[in-house]
Amino acid sequence: MHEQSFQQSTTVKALASHQYEGNLHFDYCYGTAAHGGFVASVILSAIAEHFRSTLAHLNQPHTITIHLEYLRPSTAGQIIVEIKDVKLGAGISTVHVRALQNGKERVVGYTSNMNMNTATGASYATDYKLLPEPTSTDVTKLAAGDDPRWIGYSNPYHPESPTKVQTHLRFLMPKTGPPHPSITDEWITPARSGERFTNEMIGFVTDQWPQMCENYRAESIHSSEGVVARALRAANGTTRPEDEGWRSPFWYPTLSMGIEIKKLLPNEGIEWLFVRARAKEIKNGKMDVEVVIMDANLDLVALCNHVCFVVDLAPAKRSGEGKQVSKI
Predict the structure, then answer these.
(1) How many CB atoms lie within 10 A of CB 5?
(2) CA 44 to chain centre
(3) How many CB atoms are located within 10 Å of the residue 101 CB?
(4) Is 309 helix (H, G, I), strand (E, B) or coil?
(5) DSSP letters for 72-87
């Protein structure tokens, strides 16, 4: 299991009033590429530290929106987060962020902060619910694995596994499969004993679900149903986790991500989150993904929208000059 907790892994230190240093741990990488959701959580940690220190006088500790553009892949190692105060207000403030490695911008974006504990204003019950409705759940039975409608799995950790980033969570998937191939439903909980979800983990959570494209490939071990069978094989000792590897012909890098945090989670965190990810269109190597995150009562915690590439891992076509053509 991992040496550090999620909070320890995302901790940053101030280098200056508007500059923070973090570390992208190898355990949060797909191969050599850092997981985009984990990078978002490190950035959120830097934003939180900025509003605790440099902008403490504003009393706006809670990030409510963050929009990120992923310009280049990030890798394991040091990352520098630089912040520019764009608009500082009495009720809400917006800052610009950029994350750098080796002097190059990897991620840029904007975030807005306010105090969610003192927020007031018009409020109306919209009676929002997920459609089609997810498989019903008895949350009190999830931890023990006693809800017969859901099956749980954990990916065993191995440093050589290309999917080791998934070992930080325990997943539960509906036994009957998703309500539609374009949808992934799951309940998740931290795999580390005693760890719970906090708002700083939302970035990571928004990027942790089986890819919908794989649901359209009946033979895929990475579909909503395939990931369960794959993890069970590893847990039973049938295969080693590093042997499973990434066997899809596609890879799914994130181009942009926008998150709205709807609910302030308690300081001590919560044990379970429900996640629905849904693609509205998958076309010409690009897809949108809407992610809805809810607590055990199915109250909204956060909304997220991704734009992702669907990259063919087959040898890339080359131009007439022999140079590789790449989408990323």
Answers:
(1) 14
(2) 12
(3) 19
(4) strand
(5) S--BSEEEEEEEEEEE
Residues 45-84: tens digit of each pLDDT: 999 999 999 999 999 999 999 999 999 999 999 999 999 9
Residue 65: strand pairing partners? 112, 260
Instruction: Spell out the alpha helix ranges (H) of 90-142.
Output: none
List pLDDT tens digits, range 215-260: 999 889 889 888 777 767 766 766 665 555 678 899 899 999 999 9
What tokens appear for 23 in the block? 């570390």
Alpha-carbon distance of 25 to 20, in angstroms, equals: 16
Q: CB of 188 within 8 A of CB of 207? A: no
DSSP class per residue in 202-220: HHHHTT-S--HHHHT-TT-
Are 114 and 92 a contacting pair, CB within 8 Å? yes
- Residue-level length of the chain: 328
Residue 15 DSSP class:
E
What are the residues whose beta carbons fall under 8 Å from the beta carbon of 263, sequence distance 6 or more? 295, 299, 300, 301, 302
pTM (2 decimals)? 0.92
Backbone angles phi, psi at 46, to 5 degrees: -65, -40
Decide if 10 contacts 48 (C-beta within 8 A): no
